[in-house]
Amino acid sequence: MKTNYNQIMEETLANLKGKPKLLLHACCGVCSSSVLERLYPFFDITLLYYNPNIYPEEEYFKRFDALKEIVLKMKIKVKIIEIGYESKEFKSLAKGLENEKEGGERCTKCFYLRLEKTAKLAQKYNFEYFSTTLSVSPYKNSEKLNKIGKVLSEKYNIKYLYSDFKKKEGYKRSSELANKYNIYRQHYCGCKYSLNEALEYQNK
Description:
- There is one protein chain.
- By secondary structure, this protein is of the alpha/beta class.
- The chain has helices at about 5-15, 30-40, 55-75, 85-95, 105-125, 140-155, 170-180, 190-200; strands at about 20-25, 45-50, 80, 130, 160.
- It has one domain: HUPs (Rossmann fold).
- It is about 50% helix and about 10% strand.
- Strands 3-2-1-4-5 form a 5-stranded parallel sheet.
- Helix 2 packs across helix 7.
């Protein structure tokens, strides 16, 4: 039986005391919108924009601008950390996996890379929780994401907020908010391999 990560999150939220500090990895403005709406009442949130997979560099900054824009338009008071375009890290992990289809081993390693950076920074700066907005996408495997979160939680001794943000129409809500605030929406996951795959699909 599949684990209900949304239920686990709701139980966690119901038992929180005060507003703990959460370092939330953000992949883009659209995905972050409904996640922020849901978590903002419960946490003191800092967003981490760490996405070395995104290609090309202009796209990286386009998505970063969209993230800042949605935060501003939703009038949510959160800090945003951006640590630069570190594309070499993704290129290194993708070596030998260039022909993997989206959702395969390359994606799993990419999830781990971004979540580990989040966990490390959360530990370094004394956050109580870390998590990611990635599970809001219907194309992202929540089981994989949460299993990685569990491993890193134990490795860095920091709580991971289990989630499946696509539940309760989270993805639909993110689309509604993007339309409401006229936020840029990308048509591919992020890396050049997913871009090529999306272009191949469009040209069929």
